[in-house]
Design brief:
- There is one protein chain.
- The termini are far apart.
- α1 packs parallel to α2 and α6 (175-182) packs across α7 (201-210).
- The chain has helices at 58-69, 87-93, 108-115, 122-127, 138-143, 175-182, 201-210, and strands at 4-7, 10-21, 24-31, 41-46, 49-53, 76-81, 98-105, 131-135, 150-155, 185-196, 211-223, 228-240.
- The chain has 241 residues and is α/β, with parallel strands linked by helices.
- β2 and β3 (24-31) form a beta hairpin.
- It comes from Pontiella desulfatans.
- Keywords: Polyamine biosynthesis.
- This is Polyamine aminopropyltransferase.
């Protein structure tokens, strides 16, 4: 189903996809705003949660940059938890050391947007033979025994460790849940995670119970909607205990 509002001869608003999912109604929309001219803005909503926009994505890119920068070797096997509009995955693929990239998303529709190239970065992911998209529950996979040990896990699903898209996700952010995830990493592997807002001390400390080295980065970026500066956090942890 598509909904369009017209401004002159150009589309001002277009609903590209809308469907119910087990965790709420999912919408992909494309729109233009007068202050941004002919720029197409892609936005994703899940129920009442605004998940992401193509208008600003610095924090998602920095998740891949800072996470992979913590590794000093090549031939990397990487998993990204959360596909979204693809910015973390595409940034990871810019690193020539990445040998394989598996992107896990719970929502089949999100994977379909990229496979059908309905969203701008779909073609980039489809054309890179190192990349594969997998429909699965990332958090359930982390609770299970590892299929293989990875060099890096990059996570961008929930808003923060305490503001989650579904209550079943909360276990992951406990010490037990983080320890389960760490078993999927090589002994010197890296876990990196994006969160909305400034880094929170309690979560950095919790990561330190599971990993030997932890660092919380504050990512500041221009927000063209508010006209001000917004803040995100990228946590990086390495060397499971």
């Amino acid at each position: 189903m598509q909904s369009q509002a017209w401004c002159g001869m150009s589309i001002f608003y277009e609903e590209l996809d809308f469907r119910p999912t087990p965790i709420g109604d999912l919408m992909l929309r494309r729109r233009r705003m007068p202050q941004f001219g002919d720029t197409d803005i892609y936005e994703v909503k899940l129920a009442e949660d605004f998940l992401m926009t193509s208008l600003f994505h610095e924090a998602e890119s920095q998740l891949a940059i800072k996470g992979l920068a913590a590794l000093d070797r090549g031939d990397l096997d990487v998993v990204v938890g959360g596909l979204g509009l693809g910015y973390t995955a595409v940034e990871a693929l810019k690193d020539a050391r990445v040998a394989s990239l598996v992107v896990v998303d719970f929502l089949e529709a999100v994977i379909g947007w990229h496979q059908s190239e309905l969203v701008p970065l779909g073609k980039t992911l489809n054309d890179d033979l190192r990349c594969s998209l997998r429909q699965a529950d990332f958090f359930a996979l982390m609770r299970n025994a590892p299929e293989k040990q990875l060099d890096a896990i990059l996570l961008d699903i929930d808003h923060t460790p305490t503001n989650v898209l579904h209550q079943s996700n909360t276990h992951f952010y406990t010490e037990e849940g983080l320890a389960e995830m760490a078993q999927h990493l090589k002994p010197d592997g890296v876990f990196a995670m994006w969160a909305d807002g400034a880094p929170e001390d309690f979560f950095a400390e919790r990561l330190g119970l599971v990993f030997a080295e932890t660092k919380a980065h504050t990512i500041e970026f221009n927000n063209p909607i508010t006209g001000g500066t917004s803040v995100g956090a990228v946590y990086v942890a390495a060397g499971r205990r």
